[in-house]
Amino acid sequence: MDSGHGFQLFGVLIGDTTDIPPPERVLVVSFWNRLIDSTAKTSGERILFLFNGKIWPHTPRFTYTLGDTVRWRVIDGSYGEHPMHLHGFYFRVDSRGSADVDSIYTPDQRRWVVTENLQAFGNFTLTWVPTRAGNWLLHCHKPAHTSYMLRYTLDNVDPPPGPQHVRHDVPHAIDGMSGLVVGVTVLPRAQSATPTMPDAAQRVRVFVQERAGFYGKREGLGFVTVDGNTEPARDSIRVPGAPIVLTRGVPAQVTVVNRTSNPTAVHWHGIELESFFDGVAGWSGAGTRTAPMIAPNDSFVARFTPPRAGTFIYHTHADDIRQVARGLYAPLIVLEPGERWDPQTDHVLMIGGAYEKEKYVVALNGSTSPRPLELRAGVRHRFRVINMTVDEDADLSWFTSALASDSTLVSWRAIAKDGANLPDRMATARSASLHIAPGETYDFEITPRAGDSRIVVSSASNSTMAVSARD
């Protein structure tokens, strides 16, 4: 195997624990450095990511029927990490493995997630049961691994790659994605009734905004919410976008208004909803009824009833590298009935990106030098940690002292992953150190003591720090 040009000449050996292994499908990640020849429009070298030796839209397509039990084994034959995200459903992680050892989970060790980080040369098995018909995706949640720029050739792309390539009249899933993507179609059973959408008791309007020169030569993008019928100034943006706060079990209607110069789409990450509203233009839905791209000065209405409380994300699903990097991502918080969100004790730590001196760097809550957090000592606080970078695994650590020389970690209690509450045996106190990949969310609780401490987020690009001043 030539690691300089990617791994292709390798195979997978699977040893099962039963004489009659359950039916499953195997997905193997590999990569290939494609050297561009002198006749191509784009010169240089590109890394291509593949599932089972193929690039989307030529990767495997799976078709199931409502109620089927689906079992996949995902294996990484590359050097990198790949957070695998399933649209519309939770899946159960049944085992995890590394290059050296596999761990098959007992029933009380299994976890429910919507995104599972696949370690370099690692693997995991997952099980899920589709309960809603339509088209869905499984894909790596690093936009850099699913961009249309990962096609085998860009010679025939017309217009050439760039913001102008995204059009409202073409299917984003086919035209705007490539790399590590798998398509899933769930068919209804003969007796299945067409789902009805209840009247929305929660109504939110979200404006997709744009400001020229926000990042030097680059524009900034952001989600802005408003109260009532007011509208924000056209160039007002917020990075990360404004949080949407909903209540579990209450039907919601979110109207997305696109006031940018390019088409977009919005995915409700981690939300269990009908396929048409999932946010992948030209794919979400079924048959000839698929969701459209949201053209400039147009809008789209998403309807869903969140079935569980937790920490979720809403983010762009169009021209993902550019639009995510410019700021189109935000927290979506679902509360239990009767709860109210209190930002004084309920905090979002959103790991995303920013541009400094024309370089993409990792930021915390939109800044590489975020303002200090002020926490009340002796009071329980909730921290919702989210990673929405385009290609950056990150490590977050919370130290007991504001001094860089002090490496003692505080303790916090894990309470949820991807919006799903952890069982009691996993909801334990642990050192405040977290490795988090794009598309993952984690929730922790902590009761801070008086004094200053520091939160550090580090990645391959850079580190950023927020000092917590506590009284």
Structure explained in plain terms:
With 471 residues, the chain is mostly beta strands. It has three domains: 25-187, Sandwich (Immunoglobulin-like); 202-335, Sandwich (Immunoglobulin-like); 346-470, Immunoglobulin-like (Sandwich), CATH 2.60.40.420. It contains two helices and 34 strands. The protein is globular. Residues 35-43 and 156-161 have low confidence and may be disordered.
How are the SSEs ordered, and which strands pair?
Layout: E1 25-35, E2 45-51, E3 61-65, E4 70-76, E5 82-86, E6 91-97, E7 102-104, E8 111-113, E9 115-118, E10 123-128, E11 134-140, H1 172-175, E12 181-187, E13 202-215, E14 218-225, E15 244-247, E16 252-258, E17 266-269, E18 285-286, E19 289-290, E20 299-304, E21 310-316, H2 320-326, E22 329-335, E23 346-356, E24 359-364, E25 373-375, E26 381-387, E27 394-399, E28 411-417, E29 420-421, E30 429-431, E31 433-436, E32 441-446, E33 451-458, E34 463-470
